[in-house]
Amino acid sequence: AEYKKLLSQYYLSQLRIAAEVRDAYWNYQKSKIESDLALRRNENAKSLALDVERRFKAGDLSRADLHQANGALASSEAFLVEAQANVINAEQRVRSLLGSEYLKKIQFGDIAKNIEPLPKVPENLSGLDSSLPIVAALVDQLEVAKKAVDLAKSQTRASPQLQIWTTKGREVYGVPYQQSVAVGLRIPFGSLH
Question: Which residues contact 193 (CB under 8 A, 6 or more apart)?
Fold first, then answer.
């Protein structure tokens, strides 16, 4: 009995370690993706700030626009630094669990090798157990999608559209603003095909 207890504790600790390693690996991958995204956002914010500064000096934009662009740049730099810190923390966690050699394999390895293949969707869903709530929901969702496709195929013209426009403006400075509302109805007479 003592041996069975120790064996079950051993298997339980194996599962806990595997879950911890899996969690560390995917947190590392997620932090790398977020870091790349933050880097691209920072590059876009830099180019936007330079463009706004150039246009401000030319007199096309106001100082408020310049401050707003500089604020967006500072915000993107803060996100970039935070994302890089998250990558370093995730690397340290993977290194502490697996060691430096495995971290290098993960860093330079092909991530596509580590992804599980997607399960194949069966052609006919009649073989599935429809008493399960998830299967019944999937079958119902499939039926709704099929009917939507049939409806789209049977429609020969687009649906009518109701359009509403509002405008606000003034012709001369000092005159009160004038507001106008326009309502339109678009009825398509032609065929979609």
Answer: 156
188's tokens: 């398509």
Strand segments (E) across the chain: 161-169, 178-186
- Do 156 and 169 form a contact (C-beta atoms < 8 A)? no
The token pair that represents 64 in the structure block: 């408020």
For residue 155, the Cα-to-chain-centroid distance in whole angstroms is 33
Handedness of CA 13, 16, 22, 23 (dihedral sign): negative
Sign of CA dihedral 174, 176, 177, 181: negative
Rounded to an integer, the average pLDDT of 126-140 is: 76
DSSP 113: G
| Average pLDDT, integer, range 121-130 | 72
DSSP 8-state assignment for residue 193: -
